[in-house]
Amino acid sequence: MPCKKLLLLSVICYLLSVITIPAFAETPTPTGIPTCDLCGWCPPEPTLNPTKPANWDQCYSCLYDATGQEQRGNYYTVLGCLSTKPEFFVQSILSVVFGIAGGIAFLAVLGGSAMVLTSAGDPEKLQNGKEMIISSLLGILLIVFSVFLVRFIGFDIFRLPGFGG
Asked: How many domains does the chain have?
């Protein structure tokens, strides 16, 4: 019974928060022109938000075109500008995947280096550290060559959108 009360209370709190919290982005005025852009900056209201957010330029170039019109299908996230258009979506996902893989390989190089530095003359720890460094460097090379291979096969051979450029 307490779980049902807790669930009901949380649903009521959620509904009240959705209904009562004002949205700041794209807040319409009586003329119908929004006062804030999708990136969270409200230029006509200096008291509400006097300075642009730190990543406003990247966000604005992602969500708006050169004329200031909103680009449908683009979303600015923590990972950067993502698009739901197939040609841009593939490119975004591949750059995120290769970036994460490269970061993991770099951290493995650092871990192997730390293992070598802290081996204190133990030949087994020293050998394990060397193997980790070599494997990580080979992994980085594999990632770099896979990027070229994916672009070559995807763009040059099959002419798939989103693989070139």
From this structure: 2
Cα 86-69-26 angle, rounded to 5 deg: 100
Domain that holds residue 7: 2-74
User: At how many degrees (to 10) do helices 86-117 and 123-151 cross?
Assistant: 160
Task: Give me the mean pLDDT over the 138-154 stretch.
Answer: 87
pLDDT tens-place string over residues 109-126: 999 999 999 999 899 999
Element (H, E) at 151: helix 123-151
Q: Please return the burial class of 38, using the count of CB atoms within 10 Å of its CB with bins 0-12, 13-18 and 19+.
A: middle
Left (φ > 0), alpha (ψ -120 to 50) or beta: where does 74 sit? Answer: beta
Residue 165 lies in a domain: no
